[in-house]
Specification:
The chain has a single domain, classed as Phage tail protein-like (STM4215-like, 2-Layer Sandwich). The chain is elongated. The chain has 3 helices and 6 strands; from the N terminus they run H-E-E-E-H-H-E-E-E. Helix 1 packs across helix 3. It starts with 7 loop residues before the first helix and ends with a strand. It is α+β, with helices and mostly antiparallel strands. Strands 1, 2, 3, 4, 5 and 6 form a 6-stranded mixed sheet that branches. The model has no long low-confidence stretch (mean pLDDT about 85). About 20% of the residues lie in helices and about 40% in strands.
């Protein structure tokens, strides 16, 4: 198959599909959002969930033509966990617990994305370079107020580098 030009929507959809497939997550636990830092007031079930949001992009001056333009884009993958097994003031479980801790989930997200190409429905690839990680924020506590009381989540955002050619015809 050939490398083709695509729309930004296709790129975002394929990243979400890859995460769902590789991490065995239903669409209720891995989905697109406008802002990676804004989880739902009532998050989906399960031990963790992932949001995928469009980030900043730059267009390459020497790679612009009538039919296409190259964008070096960032996609934000935010991981939210709600593990509450540590005693007050300690974070061993939320960080290190196998399969549920923030660092274990981070590793799984990295393994799902780093060094992989994406394909369209016909099996054509479309990335100029394989997926790569630009940065990862430190895990942090996110609290949301709701009628039944405060909800405590743990969040970490991973910035993924994506280079592709827009299809403009």
């Amino acid at each position: 198959m050939a490398r083709i030009d695509v729309t930004q929507a296709t790129v975002l959809e394929r990243i979400v599909e890859r995460l769902r497939s590789e991490l065995d997550l239903p669409e209720q636990r891995c989905y697109e959002t406008l802002d990676a830092d804004s989880p739902l007031v009532v998050p989906p079930g399960g031990e963790f969930f992932i949001t995928v949001s469009p980030g900043e992009g730059q267009f390459v001056p020497g790679e612009q033509a009538i039919d296409n333009v190259t964008e070096e884009w960032r996609v934000n993958v935010a991981v939210f966990a709600r593990i509450h097994l540590d005693q007050s003031g300690h974070d061993l479980e939320v960080l290190l617990r196998a399969g549920r801790g923030m660092l274990a989930i981070k590793r799984d997200v990295l393994a799902s994305l780093v060094g992989h190409d994406l394909v369209d429905n016909d099996g054509n690839t479309f990335l100029r370079n394989l997926l790569y990680i630009m940065s990862a924020a430190a895990p942090r506590v996110v609290e949301r107020q709701r009628e039944s009381g405060a909800l405590t989540l743990y969040q970490m955002t991973i910035e993924v580098g994506v280079e592709f050619d827009w299809e403009l015809t």
